[in-house]
Structure formats: structure tokens, C-alpha cells
Design brief:
alpha+beta, six-stranded mixed beta sheet, about 280 residues, about 30% helix, globular, seven-stranded mixed beta sheet, single chain
Length: about 280
């Protein structure tokens, strides 16, 4: 599978590739007008059918002026700048269409029914730790068994090591000294937010609530480093992770239609958030 590229354009960090058939503004670091135009230019040059941006609400007008539309909103995502908004532009109208829209709504309703329920405690024999460079080979082993497709190269040791240097914190669950579950928090310390992501549990250990236990540990750690808002982007078709976040007190913020190549292909994703 061809991996996405991450490039810097006039201070703006953009991920793009043909696997998800999109360009994605990961972090706005320069002019919002230039960022919006750069996304569209990349899409036209590469033939992508969607571009998406994650921006402070104060920059929203620059994107709507260039035909972007709001798809999800995270309250207080950016310290001192208000909400974070996911905005998108489609270059092929049919990409908006969600064949499984009814299923997505059912999954969301199921998750919200379980909102704020008591999460499972860590079962006997399991331990949670933060993961470091020497854990990378085991992390890759978990990712390889869990993710057939993924928008980031989590099977690459150099990539994981680089992210560890760039404010991504990894957490793991061990069972009898074997790493059996992994997650990460991609931190934007300057803006006080973190994306809770990369949840992966080996099949024999599923059903034990390990993702919920990891999330609790991650939130605790994020509070100690001053993070105020946590959010996630979860597969809209999958009840498990949506329930995990709803149960932990996260609130639904919107859906990103046909957005991310994961599992079997390009899927819609739900956005959830929580004030820590």
C-alpha cells in the first residue's frame, strides 16, 4: 500500500495520499487563505476527491470563502482560540454519499445510550505503562496484527520513533510481559489538546475492556501535562470504539463522510471530544 506523504507548505502541515484519496491539513501554521488554497491545489494536481482541514473557528471564514463546509466541531479545542472545526471540500460530489448512513446513526445511538457508564477495571494479570523507544518492535507487532490498512505508517519503526520526539505519547497494556494493546495521544501542547488514537488490541485479549483502561490512563497523564481537551476520530461503522469514548464521557461532535482509509477501505469517521 502506498503511504501518505506529510509535507509543509508555507508553514502548514498537510498529509495527503491516494490511499484515502484526500489531502488533510493536520496543523495550521501559516496563512489560512494559503492553507485552503494549497489543499485545493494538491487535490487538483493529484486527482483527490476530498480535502479536509482541522482549524480554529477564528480561521473558519478563510476556508468557507474557498468552498469548504463544516463537518464537525470540537468545543474549546484550541486554547485561547475557541472551538476546533473540521471543514471539507469535495471535488467529486458522490464522495459525500454514505451508503451506510443508517448504520452510522444506529452505532452513534447505541454509543450514546451507554454514555457515562462505569468502565471496566484492568483485569488481573494486566499492567499499563507508557511506551518508549525500546518498545517499538513489540508495538509494530501489535499494529501489524490489528491494522490491515492505516492512514499513518505505524508499521515503520522510524516513523514511530520520530513521532515520539514530536509530542506523541504511547501507552501499552502488557500481559505476562507481552505487549497486547497499544494506544497513543498526539499532543498539541501549545493549544492544550490531544488526539486519542491508534487503539489496537490483539484478538485473544479483546473483550477485557483494555481500550477503556488505556483511555483512562491516557487522560490522567494528559491532565498532568496541562492538556485541557481530548478528542478522537473513530470509525463510524464500529460500535466498539464509539462506545468506549461515549462511556468515558466524550460527546459526539460530528461525522466526517468517507474520510479515512482504514480496515477494508475508505470509511466515514465520528469525532468525539471531552474536557479534561
Amino acid at each position: 500500500m502506498q503511504l501518505d506523504r506529510v509535507v509543509s507548505v508555507m508553514g502548514n502541515t498537510i498529509q495527503h495520499g491516494h490511499s484515502s484519496n484526500r489531502a488533510y491539513l493536520l496543523k495550521l501554521g501559516g496563512s489560512p487563505d494559503i492553507a485552503a488554497r494549497s489543499l485545493s491545489d494538491i487535490a487538483v494536481a493529484e486527482g483527490y476527491s476530498k480535502v479536509i482541514a482541522k482549524v480554529p473557528e477564528t480561521m473558519l471564514d478563510a476556508f468557507t470563502a474557498q468552498s469548504f463546509e463544516e463537518e464537525a466541531r470540537v468545543p474549546d479545542m484550541y486554547a485561547h482560540k475557541g472551538d476546533g472545526v473540521f471543514v471539507a471540500r469535495y471535488f467529486e460530489p458522490e464522495r459525500r454519499n454514505e451508503i451506510l448512513e443508517t448504520t452510522f446513526e444506529s452505532v452513534r445511538a447505541l454509543a450514546e445510550e451507554k454514555a457515562n457508564n462505569i468502565s471496566k477495571s484492568l483485569p488481573e494479570g494486566y499492567t499499563i505503562t507508557t511506551l518508549k523507544k525500546n518498545d517499538i518492535p513489540e508495538m509494530i507487532n501489535v499494529f501489524q496484527q490489528v491494522f490491515k490498512k492505516y492512514p499513518f505508517p505505524v508499521h515503520d519503526a522510524a516513523f514511530i520513533e520520530q513521532t515520539m520526539l514530536e509530542e506523541t505519547y504511547y501507552f501499552g497494556v502488557h500481559f505476562r510481559e507481552q505487549l497486547v494493546a497499544v494506544s497513543s495521544a498526539e499532543v498539541d501542547a501549545s493549544m492544550g489538546n490531544a488526539e486519542m488514537t491508534d487503539f489496537a488490541t490483539l484478538p485473544p485479549h479483546r473483550g477485557n475492556g483494555l481500550a477503556s483502561c488505556l483511555l483512562t490512563e491516557m487522560e490522567s497523564y494528559m491532565r498532568t501535562i496541562g492538556i485541557k481537551t481530548a478528542y478522537t476520530i473513530a470509525r463510524a461503522v464500529s460500535p466498539g470504539m464509539n462506545i468506549t469514548f461515549a462511556r468515558a464521557g466524550y460527546r459526539y461532535c460530528g461525522r466526517l463522510p468517507n474520510n479515512t482509509c482504514i480496515a477494508e477501505g475508505i470509511e466515514s469517521m465520528n469525532v468525539w471530544s471531552k474536557a479534561l
